[in-house]
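Hi team, as promised in this morning's meeting, here are the two structures we talked about. I've kept the exact order from the run log so nobody has to guess. The first one is mostly here for context; it's the second one we should focus on when we meet again. Sequence first, then the predicted structure tokens.
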Amino acid sequence: SKSAATATQNNTAVNVPRLGADVGLNVRAASKAKNLEPITSGTATQPLVEESLNDAFDVFLDTHAVTNLLSHVLISSVFSPFELIRTRLIAQSGNDRRYYGPFHAAAAIAATEGLHQFGALYAPQHVLSTAICKGISCLLHSLSSSIIKHDLGLSS
């Protein structure tokens, strides 16, 4: 029997599903790992995607601004659900815990925010904000490196 706990969000009642006893223990045990930083940052996969884009577009430079930007936006779009879950876990207060861990957060978001189950994790409002943020960060990093090297004449 699955019951739902009621939580308040923006002064409206929201039903947050509680997992049944049969799967609840497994999800809570798997949710003990709170550090999602290695997954959400994409540091391991972004260079691989950038190199693949360089090969696909016949770019022979080590770092090209366009393929660098495309790889950051692509990786951030793919890993957007992990970023969303990580943000929700960090943002919840200690006294009013809504999520018990990453797996419970994913299940609760999928159940309460509509779309078709885990499609809620890839909702446009979540993916676009993450992709835009990572894209702007990538552009600023490239611009600052270019200004430091070419305009100021400094090297690393």
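And here is the second protein, the one for discussion:
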Amino acid sequence: MSYVSQSTVMLAVNFSFLAVPGVVTPNTAASKIEIIIYCSVVSTIGSIVFSFALLNVYSDPGLMVAGPAAVAMRTLGQRKWGMACLAITHSLPIACLVWSIALFSTALAIQIFSPKEPPTVATLGVECLVLVLFGVMSGLVMPLFSRNDDVDGGDDGDDSDDSDDKISSLTGSRHDIEEGLGK
């Protein structure tokens, strides 16, 4: 679980940000920045807890063998919400980590842009513009390097989807697959 180390770093960053002079003012109510950072801390701790919980549940050596793992997946797939719950459960650590990063970035932006000093705003504005332009340009350039899997070289006017035919040709017939699963 690599999210544990990333979440631990994010937790250290959050608490370090709270130690910056001027972020936390003693003897006053909590500021917007403090509340956002505390929410980020809670989200980071949630990511760590979910990562360790998943590590504890799936550290059974019996599930490392293909046979028992396939049986577990088959029984899970037969339940009404089995696969959806599995997908959501396994995405919780990264989801909490992403929320933590987003909340920290928001608090940092509030802290940076709150002083209205022209040199600070001008410098950060130019940097933000460069980042946006970089993102737009990479979005325009990346499709040029994407791989085209279409063998015949273009659209033949047929609107049908050939993906089922491709899959069945690779995996065999449905009858063969069901025989292999023991149905």
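Starting points for discussion:
The mean pLDDT is 75.
The CA atoms of residues 166 and 172 lie 10 Å apart.
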